[in-house]
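User: Predict the complex.
Assistant: Input components as received:
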Amino acid sequence: MQDSLQSTYKQLEQKSKYTNIFLRWFLYLILILFASYFIFPLYVMIVTSLKTMEEIRQGTLLTWPSTLNFDSWAVAWGGRGYGAGDTYLKPYFWNSIKMVVPAVFFSTFIGAMAGYVLTKWRFKGDKWVFLFLLFGCFIPYQAILLPMARTLGVLGISNSVIGLVLVHTVYGIPFTTLFFRNFYVSIPTELVKAARIDGAGFFKIFFKILLPISAPIIVVTVIWQFTQIWNDFLFGSTFSFGEAAPIQVALNNMVLSSTSVKEYNVDMASAIIAGIPTLIVYVLAGKYFIRGLTSGAVKG
Amino acid sequence: MFKWLEKNLPKIVMAPAVGLIGWFVYGFVLWTLYISFTNSKILPKYELWGFGQYSKLWASRKWLISVDNLLIFTALFLIFCIVIGILLAIFLDQKIRAEGLLRTIYLYPMALSFIVTGTAWKWILNPTLGIQKLVVDWGFENFTFDWLVNREMAIYTIVIAGVWQSAGFVMALFLAGLRSVEDEIVKAAKIDGASLFTVYWKILLPMMRPVFFTSFVILVHISIKSYDLIVALTQGGPGISTTMPALYMTQTAFHKSQVGLSAASAMMMFMAVAAVIIPYLYSELRRENAR
């Protein structure tokens, strides 16, 4: 009796162990299937950019290139060298850099100051001021495109990198303020109070006490702003064209241009070039990227 | 004078942010609202014209198609993103090896622009050399996959690309939510004999209500604003079968020069977003005050 009970128990345990192993394999299988679904377009982009058009027509999406051929990368970046009508990404890449660096700097600085005041120098109605700024995260930009286009025209900076810097700085402020405000809220106000009693002023407290401990939130904000501004297409395509266009607009124009034969390998190389800066930032600082995403994730 | 400056320094520092947002967000939205009540064509006119643009808008076939497409897209985009996101989050929560790597893979599309990924999807989905050829070469000779150039199906290609881009993000939100639940709750349930399925279905997922809410708001917001992806993938075509409100707005304004009409469409989008966002902000604020 005792023996048979023991053996049924053992059998049961064994059985559940097998189902567990089975479930575990199943789990990994599903996770890997999804991973391949997510990787698939990136893989296709890379291999296509390394093939010749001949190989593309003969093979399929998945076939590996026979030789690693970087010609289409060179064409995508520097053109074919026949002057007019030859579009390539190099000048637009620099446009984007010239647009991103100042816009990220200004919006981060203004946001840091606003977050500092809203948490450490509170005044009557500061909650409403925060809400007032926060709403700017959510508006659909279509509702401001028309007046913005006119304003840039009046200021004489439409179709210029400076115009885009202004646009991205302004519409970045709600996000940067949100990041810094939420970060400074968690820092004890006693720190600031003590410094005030010691006679430290507004700016001294910010630069000597808060700024040195703000590194993580500065990284989050800079990465967020960099990614958003680099990837922007709506503002870029509405407010700039021709030579002042940022890289996403140039990429789209290149892919859509219907001159002669479609060169998918050049298209894919261009797309990778336009995507590489943000992809590198993501791989190197994914943790900060995700933190920005989960706390400011409102902007698509 | 100096005393006054010192006392008001914080407010002075605050002023640029408030001024810029006041002008460029609130001022501009009001300007757009005003223009939507005028008969502006290429240049804005300032005599009021009543609701003419709105009735013109809702009589326009292209706008109605845009709204239809938006509803189809939003529904499918929401369902697939949330289902895939939750599944991945739960699976990743099972003490998986290489979790970090898998998470990185699921989320990397969020770091890319819709123009970049749209370009890739356009190539993958093209009917001559893309997926269709791949499957035909595998031996399924009658396989056709021409959604991208098919009026009826093109909108679903936008769903495929959109879900691919954003599902990982929902996964990240839910994973963070699941990780914040106390271990004791799960342990207690398991001791009571609850299966893993019951633990998730009956205990953990109901606790994720705020995460559902946040994902819902963010995804709806993304879908109402979707513009780049359509431009990169279909330009609203074939014909006008994949137009959406955001595309309608810019085309009406900058290609057809009907500024008043496009302002009206922009205000419709604004109201749709406000209808989702204001309750959200309200509840978030209440939660923060309750803390």
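Chain A has 14 helices and no strands.
Let me know if you want any component modeled separately.
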